Amino acid sequence: MNLKKILAVFIVTFHCLTFSCTPSICAPAMYSVDYKLVIALHPQMGNYDMVIGRHLRNDIDFSDYNVKARVNEEIAKLTKAAQKKSDDIMQKMFELENKISQMEESYSQPTDYMPDMKRFAGDNTRKTREKRIERMKAELKKLNEENIKIWDDVMNPMYYTREQSNRIVTEVLNEIDLILNDISIKRGGALIIDSDYQAIQTAPTKIGSVPAIGGDPLSIRLYQSLISANVIPELPGVYKTDPELAQYASFARKDMEESFDKNISTQISKSPLFSAVPGVRGRLVLVGNTDFDLTLEVVEKIFIKHGIRNDVATRILNLIK
Fold first, then answer.
1. DSSP annotation string for 141-160
2. DSSP helix, strand, coil percent of the chain (3-state; round to 5)
């Protein structure tokens, strides 16, 4: 059933309940929320690298050239060591793939039927080979996972481990769901659906057999930096008392506000990509039992919980209205 049909069923059901009930027991309203946009604007996703699929480490100052150089040097050393391990695994995988290919080709040839035994010649051998091929493919999969892990670990000096990052994502999703559940309860068990629901979810991209190059750390952390600072830095008193400087400050303020809005809009535009975040729930019904969009309310509650400055929060919320 496609998304339009699913929505049609919900709308018809909703109207049936609404018009058939008495005023005292009418069905609660139906709301919507852009789930991926809420994820994209969550403070804990502000250092999430969409390429690597992991969070940058918070204990590293990437604006410090010496610190960044030291991290890159450590990654270079790990890459060199990983290459040797990876080469050995790739050789084993190559040999296994050849064996599997040869075996599959050998028993794909037509065989004679033996009426007296009521089976084809080589049936027993074929079944044995099929089981062996299954075991070899399982081994091949395991080797591939080992290889992915080797290159994954190379990036540990710059990123939290994949397990740590996945835990952060789970915390974010659980927090959003709790907020939605609380809103639903306060609205009498209201039905809340994902306004940007995709029936076919995007599969997360895995790291291949070569080191994955993530985005620029400072660019990735830009959103995190924006929501952690003043939109407009406090200016010295002289800029308020001197007319000429006050005019200059007014122009500078406008430029900074436009720059802030532009950078936040960039983060908002990334929201569809967050469907690939591991663990994101592909659900039409998020909670409860779309007349109203709750995206703003949910994001606002998250900002309040995480202590985002009021002026910063207000500007971001105005951009997604």
1. HHHHHHHHHHHHHHTTTTB-
2. 60, 5, 30
Distances (CA, A) of 245 to 8, 234, 236, 238, 248: 59, 14, 10, 7, 5
As given in the structure block, the two tokens for residue 126 are 């074929």
247, with CB counted inside 10 A (0-12, 13-18, 19+), is: exposed
The answer to whether residues 212 and 157 touch, using CB atoms and an 8 Å cutoff, is no
Nearest CA-CA partner of 309 in 317, 298, 321, 319 = 317
Summarised one tens digit per residue, pLDDT across range 126-183 is: 677 778 889 999 999 999 999 989 988 998 999 999 899 999 999 999 999 999 999 8
Is 0.70 topped by the overall pTM?
A: no
CA distance 263 to 56: 19
- Using alpha carbons, select from 231, 220, 306 the residue that is nearest to residue 266: 220
| Residue 96 near residue 139, CB atoms below 8 Å | yes
Name 171's Cβ contacts closer than 8 Å, sequence gap at least 6: 44
**pLDDT, tens only, 175-207:** 999 999 998 888 888 888 887 766 444 444 444
Tell me how far apart the alpha carbons of residues 244 and 230 are, in angstroms, rounded to a whole number: 24
Residues 58, 115 contacting (CB under 8 angstroms)? no
List, in order, residues 6 or more apart from 150 with CB less than 8 Å away: 82, 85, 86, 89
